[in-house]
Specification:
The structure holds 2 protein chains of 2 kinds. By secondary structure, chain A is mainly β. Helices cover about 0% and strands about 55% of the residues of chain A. Chain A starts with a strand and ends with a strand. Chain A contains no helices and 11 strands. Chain B is mostly beta strands. Chain B contains no helices and 10 strands. In chain B, strand 6 and strand 7 form a beta hairpin. Chain B is globular. The interface between A and B is medium-sized, with 23 and 22 residues.
Chain lengths: ~110, ~120
């Protein structure tokens, strides 16, 4: 089993839709959680950290469920510009692990 | 500069030649990571430097790969006797602390290596 697993997608949604991604992790000692966004042929860029209490940044909401060992990302009112691959990152000191990414395409 | 700088941005080399990739992290960032990403694939961890500690080399795929970080700043990744399967984008990232900052990593734009 991979340490960090994501549904690869692709998710194809219309503009304005709400879409959610999950990411499961196997190491219960993981301490830090992030969502990154990667556009085609570009480097990953930090989208948001994921805090234990859950956090929101505009249309994006991230949540952590330690008991079930997953994190989630919810995108509301999706825009064409949200089309990208979303990577979850889970780790602890000296050991960060990337998921393989979930591809999202938002269509007009 | 303000970001992580990598050079060259593109490198085409002949099979069997050595290549050296460079990463300039954000000033003051103590942690530096190298990853590689093959076309359409996820990120593969290669090596991690944190301050003056011994690097974590557990991700290096073979002894043809080595990396160093001089003066706690610039890092070079060297691939000896390159093979076609080494073709990938090599990404460098830095962060202020090893992990756990709310800012996460900042990635460079990568070096696209093609071995022909």
């Amino acid at each position: 089993r991979k340490e960090v697993e994501q549904d690869p997608g692709p998710f194809n949604v219309p503009e304005g839709a709400t879409v959610a991604f999950n990411c499961t992790y196997s190491n219960s000692a993981s301490q830090s959680f992030f969502w990154y966004r990667q556009d085609c042929r570009k480097e990953p860029k930090l989208l948001m950290s994921v805090y234990s209490s859950g956090n929101e940044d505009g249309r994006f909401t991230a949540q952590l469920n330690r008991a079930s060992q997953y994190i989630s990302l919810l995108i509301r009112d999706s825009k064409l510009s949200d089309s990208a691959t979303y990577l979850c990152v889970v780790g602890r000191p000296n050991d960060m692990r990337f998921g393989a990414g979930t591809r999202l395409t938002v269509k007009p | 500069g303000a970001g992580v700088s990598q050079s060259p941005s593109n490198k085409v080399t002949e099979k069997g030649k050595d290549v050296e990739l460079r990463c300039d992290p954000i000033s003051g960032h103590t942690a530096l990571y190298w990853y590689r990403q093959s076309l359409g694939q996820g990120l593969e961890f290669l090596i991690y430097f944190q301050g003056n500690s011994a690097p974590d080399k557990s991700g290096l795929p073979s002894d043809r790969f080595s990396a160093e970080r001089t003066g706690g700043s610039v890092s070079t990744l060297t691939i000896q006797r390159t093979q076609q399967e080494d073709s990938a984008v090599y990404l460098c990232a830095s962060s202020l602390v090893a992990i756990g900052t709310e800012y996460g990593y900042t990635f460079g734009s990568g070096t696209r290596l093609t071995v022909v």
